[in-house]
Design brief:
This protein is 70% helix and 2% strand. The termini are far apart. The chain has a two-stranded antiparallel ribbon. With 243 residues, the protein is mainly α. The chain has one domain.
Amino acid sequence: MPEQNKPLRVYFYEGLMIFFAVSLGFIAENIRDTIAERNKERVLMESIITNLKIDTAALNVVIEGNLKKNRVFDSLIVLANEDLSDTVIRKQFYGFFIAGTYMSLFLPSDAAIVQIKTDGGLGLISKKGVADSILNYDKGNESLLRHNQVYTEESDDLWEAGYTILELRITKDLSYVDFFNGRKMTGRLPPPIVTDPDKLKVFFGRLTRCLLLTQTNRNMMIRHRQRAENLIRFLSDTYDLKP
């Protein structure tokens, strides 16, 4: 026998069941997407913490190298009042200059932060204050890189001034400089220092500015190291990660 027409309530219930089934499927898909995004967010935070730990270790090394350079240049600037024709002072002058002219610069490990900024990573961050904290740290990276440029240019200028009073060809001569033992001078007496007052004035002026920039660079790195340590603690606590 042909099926009789269904009551309207049956059609209503069938439609309602279809609606619930579609809605539950949509909700389940959203939940899966949310879980996937939270997992991606957590992995991204782990990567940032790893980068921050690398930065902290690098900052410790560079700060120490910067401090050694500062001490050497402090010793060199004292020689401005000494007799530069004296052979002992001459050796000290060359020794301090050569020991201090290496560059100790911090370069951030920022792969994870770059990913956040360029690949839509900011949209993954759901925790309050996290994005602002990461971007603030990145601004510290940028400030240090800008100062590194100024610092490097001034160091180059110091070398230019050094060319006018010193025989800097000896910096590559192993008979004068022991590069395998901390860039120390050997027993061989280096060439005389040009004692022209104008050239010495420029040299010690450049040295003073380089010394000040070295101190500024170190202070910036010390503050940035504190930022890195604070951010590691903040992200570890926020995402319940091992610091």
